[in-house]
Predict the structure.
Amino acid sequence: MPDPDDLIAKALAEAGLSAELPGGGVDDPLARAFAAAGLTAPEPEPDTADQVEEALADLAAHRPAVVTERVESGDGVIPVPRWPAGTATGVGSMPGTDPREAAAIVTGEIPGMPALPELPARGAGADMIGRTAALLVDIPVELKAGRWTVAGRPGADRRRAIDMLHADLDAFDEACDPIRPDFVKISATGPWTLAAAIELSSGHRVLTDRGAVREFAASLADGLRQHVAEVAARTGAAVVVQFDEPGLPAVLAGVLPTPSKLGTVRPVPEPDAQDLLREVVGALTAIGSPVVVHCCAERPPLALLRGIGATALSVDATLGSITGTTAQVAALDAVGEVWDAGMPLMLGIVPNRDPGRPVTSRRLADTAFELAGRLGFARERLAELAVPTPACGLAGADPAWARQALKLCREIGEGFVDPPDTDPDEV
């Protein structure tokens, strides 16, 4: 049985975003990402409130491609942009440390919905947890003994994370300028994985204090609204927000250890987990931003996630529970229910590491065609119901494969629009 203390780290590693921070130095991701996202910071910054309202107004007026309507309590029907059939995208993380190189790759290979690159190889604050913690409003976080911890005030860790996110946005804006995409995608750690990974000053996970969990979720929603506004203003695109929740299954199962390792944090009831996610997702769909929830765990809780108001869900479709001879009936049923509801899936079908053998988009697409066939869906519907992506983040890939993986995603998306009638082995 795996050590429960490793479950979050394992989930983050499988997402291509290490929880262990290279260098292990004192960095404050909150300071870095706060400034980088245009959030309130001690340094002189422009009037964020005015910029947010102006950018959100521009976003609301943007109507690329197909618009799907989603009902929001209190605001009536909210129009949310829907990407065109055949769109492909990335998961988020990329190899290397050069934001301009990474931005050039994603905009060149997946121009329909380029994903703002995350470069965790740069160290503390560029990692999945630190980068998102930096978006939190009025909740500073710092590194202590290699773990992200709630801090009393913003510090050097925050400032460094902000600087890196600003550099990422500058590079992404520059790379998007020649292609002017209708859609771009940004990523943030979801509220439950974030609460499981960050510690209170007592050493216990934020997850152990349900009041703190709600404060974190509200702060994350506020910070993301500002982040969306800045990205929309810079790129002129509709901004898709992806929440990464690799730790959600462990949170629901109650297998995360306490600091003493003698016990585990009590499980979060599924209705409570769903309600909190619905609130955070709703804060973003209310401003017209499509939301995707990504969970690359072996058994993603698709039934729970289907009810939170997200525009789409994202899974690793190469998992044994979903594909091939080891596919499980329960997992297949969960996927079928998502598609029956008309909700798209971002399908991770391209390896996130070089497989060491020649692969073609036609061969990889067969994973999706087989899945659709098993569930009784015509392969022609995949253009609307599936967005091809890498199986998970590309941070662990070599740069050449990262570029090739995104190219394959684009080719698979194009193939979904006009799918072949035969399987590759029959040709």
